[in-house]
Structures are given as structure tokens and as C-alpha cells.
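Repro:
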Amino acid sequence: EQAEEEDDLDVEGDDTDLRLARLEDLMERRPVMLSSVLLRQNPHNVHEWHKRAKLFQAQKDPHKVIVCYTEAVKTVDPKKAFGKLYSLWTAFARFYEEHEDVDNARGVEELAGVYCAWAEMEIRHENYEEALQVMQHAVTEPSQAIQRRRQNEAQGRALRESTKGGGEKRAEMIASIPVQERVHRSTRVWSLYLDLEESLGTVATTKAAYERCLELK
């Protein structure tokens, strides 16, 4: 009988550990679950979308952050938005620019897509000057990129002069450049920017834009 009682205690102990584990898991997921409830009540709450993204950033889960911002900009209706809708696009782009893990070709294309979608949203609401400003920012080469480019050009010349395998090393060098320093070369952003310059800019600004584009080739 004593052995049976000990077995019962062990079972109860195991059950308690399981329940505690479930409780801890529930407490960890509570902020995200609460966020989901609040967004179901008002999916156009810009502030709540920002809070949700910060929760995933705290969890160090960049994929969920990207999914969160993607859902946010697709869901929020500009006419019903509670908060500044453009801040979602700004935060989305800034996340890509600041996140060091997103540094591959797919990341460049995705960041280019963020800028283009942002500008297209402004165009749909007839905010043409804002759309042009968004794309002007997208095609502007960051100061860090200018410094890195000059360093890489010098290293590239040295590699070509010193080794036959310089081509492979140069390719690796280019691939290591962060997303935010490469998106300004995206064909996608330049295509939309040039269209906007032709429609909204002057002859001088449009000519200058095409000259800059040709210099990148």
C-alpha cells in the first residue's frame, strides 16, 4: 500500500510539473495573444501593430517581425487608421535597414518591395509628392555605402592585380554588403522612381535622375 501511495505522489508530482510548464508557456504567450485580441477588435489601430512588432523584436524573431509589418500595411485602411499609417512603412523599412541578419539578395528585393509598396500606397491616395520623396530616399546611396564602396574598389583592384582568384573574393565581398547599402541599386526602385520623376519632376531633375541611374551600371 505504501508503494502505491508513493506511485500516486509521483504521478501527481509529474502532473504538477506539466501544469507549471503549461502555465509558464501561457504567460510567455500572453502579450502576443492579448495583441491578437486587440487587433481583432480594431485592425486599423496603428499603435497596436507597432506594439506587436516590438514584441517579436524582443523575442529576436525577425521573420515574425516581417510578417507582422506585412500584415499591418495590408490590413490598415488609411480612412480608418487610428494613428499615422506612414509610420508603419517607415518602421518596416527601418527594420530592414537596421537588422544585420537580413543581408542577402532576397532581403534587398524585399526592402525594395517595401519602398515601392509604400510609394504606391501614397499614389493611390493622391499623395504624389510624398511618393516621390519615398523613392528619392530609396535611391539615395547611404554615406556608409559610399565609404564601403571606396574601400571595396581599392581592395578589388588589389585582388585583381595580386591573384587570379580575385573574382571570387570580390563576389564574396559584394555579397557581404548589408541590405541597406545595396537597395539603392535595385532596378525595381529605380524603375518606379524614374516614372515618378517623369510625371512629377522637371526636365532638369528627370535628366539628372537618368544620369545617376546610368552611373550605377
